[in-house]
């Protein structure tokens, strides 16, 4: 009988010493241990907050970089999540015979405790799921929705007769809170793909909420940055701040009896315990509170009771010898990743691998960064103008195929000039479309989980509360999202043209979340074997992070850890090209003036920013021996699984 042991990489000895990771044994040798630990890397410490940071528009804090992380090789199952405790919970579900869908439930419940700034049951999610038995790929939409009573100016002003901005700002008011969707998504996925009892999957999180856990360095840094906003909400203040109003530091033990009670009710009675009854009433009351001068929101009990997660048609396109499957709208992630790859398919990118490839992924060539950034600009231009919730705003041609047509993308590729940046790109012309381009709001309170199970199933779940700590409203132990700020605040452009991503009652705001599954493509063009699972947090930059990981793995044949560790680079449809200055290969001193890559890009007209990137990529990749996993060194993630 084959014996297995379980390992993880990407957490740190510091986390163990602080008590962040408990209940698992050392992976240093000896008898097999369930999901045992094998610490790797250096501690993640939160970067200091810049003076004058605007928390309504800036991302989560940068957390440094864990130099030299190693890939984790596993046998039949693997999971990579943004916090070791969540990875551990999911791994044990897999070890006990659970499916990827089961593991997601356990991991998400724990993430809501140990990473509340990023995700939780008060937010939403998108899921790509591969069912090995049926060889089917499903896309699950658990995006939040606007209340039925919301108007197109709901975020813009208090009312048509009181045209003042919601207080203290749109995000921290009740107006930003959308009807949460994460639990309904997990319920639907579990009902179709789960094996273990729903209630059992909540035990790790309930035990953790009761027993307590140590605040991690990243969470502590985010509490410190968000303290003034958290202090406006009495529940948030009591939970995250000390009695004197100062932020609770790393290593502080947090218990959350309110969350334990909430999770216990959902475990016993299912998501109806959340969407109806006492918890639902508490959500409505919290959103409607006017304490502290906050403008109340208008979520109703009917909004909550009526929420439905939706199954969408997965967006699967070819890229070289692979099929890449991503999330359709209302996420713009899948279509923008696919468009970028479709443009890049017209270039010989595999001949431009990074230089001096090491465990951190090496240093990308200027030519490659230029091509990929320009392709992204072109893809973002179409995304910004045309992509929104297609239940309200149809895509050109009523299908993603119009924007992803091979001939069209070849024409787009022809706009890329060697060694000369385009600055900003114009969207394609699909005839008279009565919609305009609206500003993209950030969604930085986000996390990601990648899972494969021993049955061959796989899941990529990107989950969010929008900005860090969402709306700063805490109710019954969990954070409520501020997802509605992903809508365009104004309903129309200056010339009166309606915006595709304007707010409408019952509408889902556009997202950039890009959970992705990759398959080999057979000689006949049919879908072959599952080969990779990936995704990331990071707001509208998620698209760039996922493109980076895919190009690293598929074109440049890097292992998953190298792929996610590699330099973060890319562009939205602006003149700025990002090159992550947190990476050891980039010299970020004097704004990158001494770095050869940065200098070359600037010679070609790129306006390069070397600000630290806040990706949280995870990636799993199959080879002949099993699975190899990687977790982003920019966060606290870990990979666990079984080894032969």
Commentary on this structure:
This protein is 28% helix and 17% strand. The N terminus is likely disordered. The longest helix has 21 residues. The protein is globular. It is α+β, with helices and mostly antiparallel strands and 644 residues long. The strands form 5 sheets. The protein has an 8-stranded antiparallel sheet, with helices on one face. The protein has a 7-stranded antiparallel sheet with strand order 2-21-20-16-15-10-9.
Task: Give the structure's gist in a few sentences.
The chain has 644 residues and is of the alpha+beta class.
The backbone outline, from C-alpha atoms, is: globular
Low-confidence runs: 1-34, 36-58
Strand content: 15-25%
| Backbone structural class | alpha+beta
Mean pLDDT: 90
| Residues in helix, % | 25-40%
Main sheet overview: 8 strands, antiparallel
Q: Compute the number of strand runs.
A: 22
If strands are numbered along the chain, what order do they take across the biggest sheet? 1-22-3-11-12-4-5-8
- Counted by DSSP, the helix tally is 18
Radius of gyration: 23 Å
Distance between the termini: 11 Å
């Amino acid at each position: 009988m084959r014996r297995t042991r379980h390992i993880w990489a990407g957490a740190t000895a510091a986390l163990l010493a602080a008590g962040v990771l408990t209940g698992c044994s050392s992976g240093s040798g000896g008898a097999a241990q369930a999901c045992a630990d094998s610490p790797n890397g250096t501690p993640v410490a939160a970067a200091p907050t810049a003076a004058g940071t605007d928390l309504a528009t800036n991302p989560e804090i940068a957390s440094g970089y864990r130099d030299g992380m190693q890939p984790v090789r596993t046998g039949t199952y693997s999971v990579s999540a943004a916090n070791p405790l969540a990875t551990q919970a999911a791994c044990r579900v897999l070890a006990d015979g659970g499916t990827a869908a089961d593991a997601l439930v356990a991991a998400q419940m724990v993430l809501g405790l140990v990473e509340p700034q990023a995700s939780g049951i008060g937010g939403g999610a998108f899921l790509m799921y591969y069912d090995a038995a049926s060889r089917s790929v499903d896309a699950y939409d658990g995006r939040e929705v606007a209340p039925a009573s919301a108007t197109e100016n709901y975020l813009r002003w208090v009312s048509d007769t009181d045209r003042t901005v919601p207080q203290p700002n749109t995000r921290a008011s009740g107006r930003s809170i959308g009807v949460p969707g994460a639990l309904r998504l997990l319920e639907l996925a579990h009902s179709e793909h789960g094996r273990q009892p729903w209630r059992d999957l909540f035990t790790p999180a309930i035990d953790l909420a009761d027993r307590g856990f140590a605040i991690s360095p990243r969470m502590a840094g985010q509490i410190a940055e968000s303290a003034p906003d958290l202090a406006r909400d009495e529940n948030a203040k009591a939970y995250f701040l000390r009695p004197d109003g100062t932020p609770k530091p790393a290593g502080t033990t947090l218990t959350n009896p309110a969350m334990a009670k909430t999770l216990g009710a959902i475990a016993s009675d299912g998501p109806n315990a959340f969407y109806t009854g006492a918890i639902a009433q508490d959500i409505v009351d919290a959103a409607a509170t006017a304490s502290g001068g906050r403008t109340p929101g208008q979520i109703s009990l009917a909004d909550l009771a009526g929420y439905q997660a939706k199954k969408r048609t997965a967006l699967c396109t070819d890229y070289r010898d692979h099929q890449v499957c991503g999330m359709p709208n209302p996420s713009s992630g899948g279509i923008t990743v696919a468009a970028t790859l479709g443009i890049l398919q017209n270039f010989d990118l595999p001949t431009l691998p990074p230089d001096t490839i090491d465990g951190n992924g090496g240093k990308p060539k200027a030519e490659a960064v230029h091509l990929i950034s320009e392709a992204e600009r072109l893809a973002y231009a179409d995304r910004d103008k045309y992509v929104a919730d297609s239940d309200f705003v149809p895509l050109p041609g009523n299908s993603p195929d119009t924007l992803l047509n091979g001939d069209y993308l070849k024409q787009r590729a022809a706009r890329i000039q060697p060694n000369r940046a385009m600055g900003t790109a114009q969207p394609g012309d699909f005839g008279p479309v009565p919609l305009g381009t609206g500003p993209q709001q950030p969604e930085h309170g986000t996390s990601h989980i990648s899972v494969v199970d021993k049955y061959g199933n796989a899941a990529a779940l990107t989950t969010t509360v929008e900005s860090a700590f969402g709306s700063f409203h805490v109710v019954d132990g969990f954070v409520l999202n501020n997802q509605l700020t992903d809508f365009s605040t104004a309903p129309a452009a200056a010339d009166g043209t309606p915006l595709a991503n304007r707010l409408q009652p019952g509408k889902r705001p556009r997202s950039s979340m890009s959970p992705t599954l990759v398959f080999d493509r057979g000689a006949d063009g049919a879908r072959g074997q599952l080969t990779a699972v990936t995704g990331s947090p990071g707001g509208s930059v998620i698209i760039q992070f996922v493109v980076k990981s895919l190009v690293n793995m598929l074109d440049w044949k890097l292992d998953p850890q190298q792929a996610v560790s590699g330099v973060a680079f890319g562009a939205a449809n602006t003149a700025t090209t990002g090159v992550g200055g947190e990476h050891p290969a980039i010299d970020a001193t004097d704004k990158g003036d001494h770095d050869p890559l940065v200098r070359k890009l600037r010679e070609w007209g790129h306006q390069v920013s070397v600000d630290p990137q806040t990706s949280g990529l995870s990636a799993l990749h199959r080879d002949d021996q099993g699975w190899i996993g990687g977790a982003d060194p920019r966060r606290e993630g870990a990979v666990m699984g079984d080894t032969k």
